[in-house]
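User: structure tokens for this one?
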Amino acid sequence: MIFIRVHREKDFLLYVESLQSLMFLFFALDHYNYCCWVSVHLRDMQSLPATLTKDFQKHWVVNKTQKRFSALPIDQVHEQENAKVKGKGGDLNGQGEPLARFDCKIFDGAALVHGLPTSSASTFDDCARTIFQPFLHRELQGVKRLDLVWDRYLHSSIKESTRQKRGCGVRRKVAPKTRMPTKWKDFLRDSTNKEELFSFLSQIVITEECPHDKELYVTSGTSVISRGDCEPMMDCTHEEADTRIIVHLHHAVDREAEKILIRTADTDVVVLLVGQLPALLHDHPDIDVWVAFGMGRNFCHYNINTICQNLGEDKSRALPLFHAFTGCDTNSCFLDKGKISAWKVWKSHPDVTGAFLHIVENPFQPVDVSSAHIQCLERFTVLMYDVTSNLVSVNDARRELFCKKKRIVFINWYDALLQNIKRVVYQGGIWTTSRQAQPTVPSPEVWGWTMQHVHWVPVWMTIPEAAKACKELIKCVCKSEAGCLQLITDTIAVTLIPVLYVSILKNELLAVNHLHHFPCTMCEYSVFTSTMNTLESGDEGEAIR
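Assistant:
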């Protein structure tokens, strides 16, 4: 305790005495390094000239605040300051302490609803007036402009199909006197609940008076309601708050806002801001954009300017397409390949940046399979699964990896990859045109999606499934009228397909010969003679067909 006290009170002489009293403990506890270097440090401190001793008594510690008992050792203060600058991931990722004051704050309404403590509220009206509204009122005091942006919920959209996969919540009508649900997260899983809640909160917010020197913008459906000293915003047809935030950011910058904070918990928003900021900086070089990101212990601040500076202009603009290609809310990721492994491949194969930028500069352009950009994306996919490969075709890479590893390799067939690229181009077009309040977005039907039971589902491939295609190569010789193909589909998929696949890839006709007489408990299978003749002639492509 005395050792801590000497630092807090800046008593240098007592520091030397207390350190000398602690020396025997380092030897007793066998702390070798402390024994060596604390002895040297203690000798140096005891040998200081009288003039330096006086200086040490004033400057050997640092005051964190103006309070008397707030002094800390210089090395400890240095470590604390480094932690502030670097954050969890290092200073290169833009994480750090935010500015003391902002001109504008843009809030993702859904992030606020998820993050605010609602357990003390008894009804929805109580929650809105005692928790939500006071929070916005406090935030508005420190800025000139505040934007509250909500999601829209369209029943026949790709995003709605994605929400269905997250599960259904408990339906409860939102009304002023309705009691708050005990399971808040389950309540927020229902799209209708959120739609009613967001509309209810917006009405509460806009009914309050706004100071004349402040600007308040609240979205309601496609319209934007403004209060205070505001310039009206045009209607916006965006579905998600992710892209709608970009519209509000552009409007705030055009209104001479320079220091802007965006509160969200969605990674897509951070990625979109990085992709949009280079274009904003060309017209407004003085803007400084920060993001308050995450919830609870994972909450932190990111400076988008720093991230863009470290990535460079081209890579920053291409980042949204990289995010869509490697997996986002509306597009699946590659099996066993996450963002980190894909990022390492991007660093070693920077040519793919040009392909991403081509999609950015040409939104919703039909996919040309002969394009060099599509071939570059195909090559990028091959490298994600084998960085040593010299192949460009994913089909060739799949065949090569199968022969090396003696097992099925889960790299996409070219047909499946092409459907994935179509979905990437579609999502990239939505993100690229996010600065427009009313963009023209085509139907997803020709972009790797199909409508099934009022929901959009991905088109995984256009070629027949292997299990169904192999049925054309076999025949049932049992006496049953319906046959037994339906009953042993699993047997076909597990036993017949791998053997046939090995035969075609490795040209081992001996393995194929075992299929001439394929026994089963219910019937016998015989491979068509024409198929066998085709395989023996070496025409593998015709045999596959």
